[in-house]
Amino acid sequence: MENFGCTLCPRRCGADRTRETGRCGGGARAKVARAALHFWEEPPISGTRGSGAVFFSGCPLGCVYCQNREISQGGKGLPVDTAQLANIFLDLQRQGAHNLNLVTATHYAPQVIAALEMAGDRLHIPVVCNTGGYETVETVRLLAPYVDIWLPDFKYYSSVLSGKYSGAPDYFPVACKAVKEMVRLAGPPVFDKQGLMKSGVCLRHLVLPGCRKDSLQIMDFVGDTFPRDALAVSLMRQFTPTEACSAFPELNRRLTTFEYESVEDRLRELNFRWCFVQEKGSAGKEYIPCFDYTGVL
Question: What is the pLDDT of residue 1?
Fold first, then answer.
C-alpha cells in the first residue's frame, strides 16, 4: 500500500493505510479469515470440486444484513504478507479448486495484485473477483488484467434502501458504472465443456424482504441495459436475518415464496442466455461459513 490517502473504493476516505485503517477496515496488509473449498456458489463457479474461496476481512459497504458480519464489519481476520497470500492461492489450487475466488477483496487490490504476480505462472486456474458491486471504475480497471470472472452483487435500485441498509445512497449509480466496465472488459461469459465458467461476468441480486418492487426495478434495468448474452444473471434467495436486523423489523423475517418467485418470473421473462436461481432451502445459518482461519494458519 503506497503512502497516500486511500481512494480504492467509492468512499474515498483518504486514510493513510500505512498508519491507520480505512473506512473499509483495511490497513497496510490484507486480512484473511478463511481460505477453503467452497461449494455454495453458482454451479458454474463451484462445480464438483468447489471454488477456492479466500474470505477477506473488511468491506467498503456496511450492510446491516451481511451474513459475514464478523469479518466484514467485526474486524476478524489475520494479517498476511504477500508471500503468505500467494501461498494461500496456490494451496487452494493444489486442493483441486476450480478457480480462485477472492471474496470482498477489492479494498486490498494492491496486496492481491502483488500476491498474484508472485504466484505467477504457477497459478493457472481462473481468478474470480467476488464483490459487493460498490466499486470505482479505476479499481475495476486496476484489477482487470488479473481477473477472469467478475461476480458482483447488484443490490439496490433505490437510494433510500441503499442508504438505509448499507450506508451508501449512491450505490446504484456507482454499481452501474462498475458493472458496465466489468462487462466491457471481460466480454461475454465463456464456459468449458463441463459447464464451468472460465471468464465473463455473473451478476448477482439478493432479494430482500419487503423490497420486491426494488428487485423488479433491478431486473428491468438489467434487461434494458445488457444484451441477453453479455453476462449471466444469478437471483439469490439466501437471505437470513442477522442479529443486526432486529433494528429493522421489516428485514427481520424470512423471504416469502411470493416475493422471490415474482422476481424470478420477471428474470425469466427477460430471456437471458444464462440465469441461475436458488431453491427455497438455500437460506439458513448452516450456509454461513465458519471463519475459524481455516487455510490461513
Answer: 43
Burial of 93 (0-12, 13-18, 19+ CB in 10 A): middle
Q: Among 149, 42, 35, 151, which residue's Cα sits nearest to residue 93?
A: 35
Amino acid occupying residue 139: T
Cα separation, 155 vs 175, whole angstroms:
9
Is the distance from CB of 93 to CB of 41 less than 8 angstroms? no
Residue type, 2: E
DSSP 8-state code for residue 120? G
pLDDT in tens, 178-187: 999 999 999 9
Classify residue 293 by its DSSP letter.
-
Give the residue-averaged pLDDT of 219-232.
Answer: 98
The pLDDT tens digits for 106-136 are 999 999 999 999 999 999 999 999 999 999 9
Residue 101: strand pairing partners: 53, 128
CA distance 245 to 236: 18
H or E element that contains 31: strand 30-38
Task: Check if the beta carbon of residue 54 is closer than 8 Å to that of residue 77.
Answer: no
Q: How far is CA 180 from CA 12, 141, 266, in A?
A: 21, 12, 21
Give the pairing type, strands 78-80 and 30-38: antiparallel
Single-letter amino acid code for the residue at 1: M
Q: How many CA atoms lie within 13 A of 1 on its CB side?
A: 25
Q: Are 66 and 93 in contact (CB under 8 A)?
A: no
N- to C-terminal Cα separation, the chain:
23
Among 73, 75, 51, which residue's Cα sits nearest to residue 129?
51
Distance CA 216, CA 204 (A): 14
With H, G, I as helix, E, B as strand and everything else as coil, classify residue 186: helix
CA angle 197, 203, 206 (to 5 degrees): 125
